[in-house]
Amino acid sequence: MTSTTNENIKIPALPAWRVILAMVGFRTWYWVVDFFSVLLFRAAWQLAPALILKVFFDLLSGQAPAGVNLWTVIGMVAASYLMRVTGELGFFYADVPLFADDDTLLRKNLLRHILRRPGASPLPDSPGEAISRFRNDVNEIPLFVIWINDILVGLMVIIVSIGMMASISLVVTLISLLPVILVGFIANAASSRIERYRRASRQATGKVTGFIGEFFGAVQAVKVAGAEHNVIRRFDDLNEARRNVSLKERLFDTILDALYRNTSSLGTGVILILVGQAMRSGTFTVGDLSLFVYLLTSVSDLTTFAGMIVARYKQLSVSVERMYRLMEGAPLEALVEPSPINLSGPLPLVFYPTRKDADHLETLDATGLTYHFPGSSNGIEEINLRLKRGALTVVTGRVGSGKTTLLRVLLGLLPKESGDIRWNGLPVRNPADFFTPPRCAYTAQVPRLFSATLKDNILLGLARGDAEIRQALRQAVMERDLEELENGLDTMVGARGVKLSGGQAQRTAAARMFIRDAELLVFDDLSSALDVETERVLWERIVEGKQVGKYTGTQVNTALSTCLPDTCLAAPSLPATVLAVSHRRPVLRRADHIIVLKNGRVEAEGALDELLESCEEMQQLWQQESTPEPNGER
Predict the structure, then answer these.
(1) d(CA 157, CA 161)
(2) Which one, 125, 165, 450, 473, has least CB within 10 Å?
């Protein structure tokens, strides 16, 4: 089985039956308990009543065997009731954890492999469709795992039912089962259409969900453009398409279901026609007729259920394909890989890596970094750079020159095509896993904030006190903003930080970097949304913090112990190295080294004064930069 991201790319995926078996094996004990619970419940619901009715009607008609009386019927009813109650208790014990654990494992594995993707690589489909797969497609699998027991027990019930009917009359049994067999063939023939309708329905649902997610993320742009009516019209069109395919799927399922359920009526009619003469002659009792009718109804119901299961299996295959599409590039067993599931008790502790001697940065070298966007010649080629401890290195260039791409490839957020990265001379095999705190902290051009408090957005689970948070906010020039926020550190920033200004969001992300005390700070156009004065103070504090990092721990502690709280700009262990993308003059003036990019290649590099004399590209960039200096210079 394969799923496709487009017509030319095939993504391997496990067959649906292997996914189901893996989920059965993940919680085998609960599955076994559920099996015996289903066995007891169906025996009490579909077999015992048939026997009770036969004994009761034979007792009324005087055709019951010797020794059978009313107490026999009462005892059978009591036994049936106990079996049913025991089965239901088994469901309560086994079904909830079986469903919840399998559901959680699948979502955990999906999320794990999505997070292993290069950070800047887009998902194969929209975030809305990804949510649809986490919500709808995942639920199909544990539900089917539970249904397997219904299938197995249902097959046993059918066999026992046919055996009970055949012991009374083999000919009547075979003829009455013909409609059931016919419906089974029809269900099998319809399976391909079932799969087609389900696939179209899920795709239409994913488009609607994806559109909603995109709309919520672009409300301001829609309002500025005055496009509300067009957006609503597009939403209506998507919903209408979804309604049409969903209606076809539901109508087809309903037709099949009606066909299944009318099978028992056809069988009952056949029985009445066949046994009329036998009942008059006394060879076929009223109790036999009641047993036949009840069991045939049960067999028909089970056939209905079996037909539904066949249809759901086809639909399940579509769900598995969609999940593997979301996990493109993951190993075949990735979706069902067992791992601990903790749904009760205290949450597991989160451990953050501690700084080691090898994490201390002296030099970072990158040679020959190359990356092109898929299907395009755009990207970067043969980029070399060297970062030294204590240096502020600035990457600059025109829009589209490859600045952000360079940072993302260096940090592993995009997969490099070629090139070599070395930390203190040692090769970095997996940049995405390596460039994390305490080695590196990164702020993107558009920082990601969550609908949580300011404090939680800075910490993201990190164990730090309020004093350390305030120190990080001070270095990010957020101390005055913090005083103006209604609830201080506990202020809710809204979805994606919507309650903060663009500059506040950038500085919040910067504070999130500072508090992690990383060796290397990487900024992508950090000050693009800041006013001139705030930008000046921010870079002064970053540069002064960088200078602090040049000293030994003893020197820093001594310096900080003698300074006033209002003048201490950096914690003792602030990083010593900064890599920034910027075209702003305040940053370029403070840079120790500047790299000028043009069309994805290094055009020139060196100190600002040297580049302004020798590099035409740098001269043009400097003239285009309209940000005035605090003293009025440009």
Answers:
(1) 6
(2) 450
**Amino acid (1-letter code) at residue 99:** F
Where do the H-state alpha helices sit in 460-584?
A: 466-475, 479-484, 502-514, 532-548, 553-562
Structure tokens at 337: 């890989």
Contact (Cβ atoms closer than 8 angstroms) between residue 204 and residue 243 = no
> Distance between CA 524 and CA 308 in Å, rounded?
54
Q: Which of 424, 432, 393, 408 is nearest to 579 (CA)?
A: 393
Residue 385 forms beta bridges with which residues? 366
User: Hey, what domains does the chain have and what are their CATH numbers?
Assistant: 11-336 (1.20.1560.10)
Asked if residues 348 and 145 have their Cβ atoms less than 8 Å apart, the reply is: no
Residue 266 has pLDDT above 80, yes or no: no
Vertex 371 angle, CA 366 and 372, to 5°: 160
Helices (H), 43-137: 48-61, 70-115, 127-132
Predicted confidence at residue 556, as pLDDT, reads: 38
The C-alpha atoms of residue 339 and residue 101 are separated, in whole angstroms, by 10
The strand pair at 2-4 and 10-12 is best described as: antiparallel
- H or E segment at 581? strand 577-581
Q: And the tokens for 498?
A: 């919507």
Among 454, 368, 358, residue whose Cα is nearest residue 417: 368
Cβ atoms of 397 and 603 within 8 Å: the answer is yes
Give, to the nearest 10 degrees, the angle between helix 286-326 and helix 48-61: 170
pLDDT of residue 175: 75
Phi, psi angle pair for 438, to nearest 5°: -90, 5
Strands 392-397 and 577-581, by their bridges, are: parallel
Question: Going edge to edge, which strands form the sheet with 363-372?
Answer: 379-388, 363-372, 418-423, 426-427
DSSP code, position 376: S
At 166 the pLDDT is 83
Contact predicate 469/457, CB 8 Å: no
Give the Cα separation of 398 and 313 in Å (integer).
54
- Tens digit of each residue's pLDDT (9 = 90 or more) over 119-156: 777 777 777 678 778 888 888 899 899 988 988 888 88
Please check the confidence at residue 504 and state whether its pLDDT lies above 70. Answer: yes
DSSP letters of 122-182?
Answer: PPSS-HHHHHHIIIIIHHHHHHHHHHHHHHHHHHHHHHHHHHHHHHH-HHHHHHHTHHHHH
Which pLDDT score is estimated for 7? 35
- What lies within 8 Å, CB to CB, of 82 at 6+ separation is none
* Cα separations in angstroms, 288 against 69, 98, 426: 17, 40, 84
In degrees, to the nearest 5, what angle opens at C-alpha 588 toward C-alphas 584 and 591?
145
**527 pLDDT exceeds 90?**
no
- In sequence order, the β-bridge partners of residue 370 are 418
CA distances 525 to 296, 447, 501, 519, Å, are 74, 11, 16, 19
Distances (CA, A) of 210 to 215, 345, 351: 9, 35, 34
Render pLDDT for 341-368 as a digit per residue (tens, 0 to 9): 877 777 767 777 888 888 899 999 999 9
